[in-house]
């Protein structure tokens, strides 16, 4: 069955996008992460050493994609399971180890199983995430006190500290490098909710893919929670992006957190897909 599958690796994100962008754009919200990461690197004309950009083809048509920017996890889209196993052979030739695979559960598991079969070690299921899309905003009622504003340089230290809090709470790494956070502020991507001059919540609009944008890194410190600040901020930021001409906003949620999933659904976000981290443990050398 796998004889008709073909794995094609590209040296540059631009070449990868030339081939795969039309396929990824068919489900732009679902594949925002792969598409936006490749687009950003193509626009900057630079990418991480050892990065891979891979198309999976069947009978000359693209049927799936994968990419990795070391040291991060391997990202995979939907594809037939036998194709995922063949994809793993290409990835094995490129890397000695990978920390995890993020993608549809059956595809991530197929890649992890094929990897462990060759390299040893084991794999385990990590966080399950919901992929949500919003086309129209429903504001929370009642709206809490305060208002949204674009973050400024005076918010820099707070953004770094709260990024670390986000990472602790979710287990998802926050890119707290100074260059990243300053770039968010310089480009107007980082937003805050402010009450009487005090910042109480943050969120980032990033992952632009032409028609859509990804909302992420939503964080409210423990002492300010359960007051609706994050809901209000996500609603206003989503509305701002739609009014700027985006067709949709999307975001990821921890499926193990029913509270946050319910909050986003009340704002108008609807679940369109589920992905999972499959964590790969290295060979036991004890």
Element layout with pairings:
Elements: E1 5-10, H1 13-25, H2 32-44, E2 52-58, E3 61-68, E4 74-76, H3 81-94, E5 100-103, H4 105-119, E6 122-134, E7 147-150, H5 156-170, H6 178-186, E8 190-195, E9 198-206, E10 212-219, H7 229-243, E11 248-254, H8 258-267, E12 270-281
Parallel strand pairs: 4-5, 10-11
Antiparallel strand pairs: 1-2, 2-3, 3-4, 5-12, 6-11, 6-12, 7-8, 8-9, 9-10
Helix pairs in contact: 1-2, 3-4
**Which strand order spans the largest sheet, edge to edge or round the barrel?**
1-2-3-4-5-12-6-11-10-9-8-7
Name the poorly predicted regions: none
What distance lies between the first and last C-alpha atoms, to the nearest angstrom? 39 Å
Main β sheet profile: 12 strands, mixed
- Strand portion: 25-35%
Classification by helices and strands: alpha+beta
Question: In summary, what is this structure?
Answer:
The chain has 286 residues and is of the alpha+beta class.
Question: Can you give a write-up of this model?
Answer:
The protein has 286 residues and is α+β, with helices and mostly antiparallel strands. 36% of the residues lie in helices and 30% in strands. It contains eight helices and twelve strands. It has helices spanning 13-25, 32-44, 81-94, 105-119, 156-170, 178-186, 229-243, 258-267, and strands at 5-10, 52-58, 61-68, 74-76, 100-103, 122-134, 147-150, 190-195, 198-206, 212-219, 248-254, 270-281. A twelve-stranded mixed sheet has the order 1-2-3-4-5-12-6-11-10-9-8-7, with helices on both faces. β2 and β3 (61-68) form a beta hairpin. α1 runs antiparallel to α2 (32-44) and α3 crosses α4. It is globular and about 60 Å long. The mean pLDDT is 94.
């Amino acid at each position: 069955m796998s004889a008709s599958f073909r794995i094609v690796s590209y040296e540059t994100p631009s070449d990868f996008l030339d081939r795969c962008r039309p396929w990824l754009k068919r489900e732009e919200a679902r594949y925002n992460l792969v598409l936006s990461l490749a687009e950003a690197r193509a626009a900057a004309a630079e990418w991480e050493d050892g990065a891979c950009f891979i198309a999976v083809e069947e009978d000359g048509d693209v049927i799936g994609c994968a990419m990795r920017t070391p040291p991060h996890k391997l990202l995979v889209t939907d594809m037939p399971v036998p194709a995922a196993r063949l994809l793993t052979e290409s990835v094995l030739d490129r890397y000695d180890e990978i920390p995890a695979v993020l993608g549809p559960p059956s595809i991530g598991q197929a890649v992890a199983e094929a990897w462990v079969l060759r390299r040893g070690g084991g794999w385990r299921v990590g966080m399950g995430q919901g992929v949500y899309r919003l086309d129209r905003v429903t504001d929370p009622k009642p709206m809490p006190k305060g208002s949204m504003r674009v973050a400024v340089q005076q918010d820099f230290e707070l953004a770094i500290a709260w990024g670390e809090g986000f990472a602790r709470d979710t287990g998802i790494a926050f890119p707290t490098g100074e260059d990243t956070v300053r770039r968010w502020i310089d480009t107007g991507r980082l937003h805050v909710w402010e009450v009487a001059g005090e910042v109480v919540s943050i969120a980032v609009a990033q992952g632009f893919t032409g028609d859509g944008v990804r909302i992420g890194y939503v964080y409210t410190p423990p002492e300010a929670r359960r007051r609706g600040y994050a809901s209000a901020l996500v609603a206003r930021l989503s509305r701002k992006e739609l009014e700027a001409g985006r067709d949709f906003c999307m975001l990821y949620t921890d499926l193990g957190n029913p509270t946050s999933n319910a909050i986003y659904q009340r704002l108008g976000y609807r679940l369109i897909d589920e992905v999972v981290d499959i964590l790969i443990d290295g060979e036991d050398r004890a």
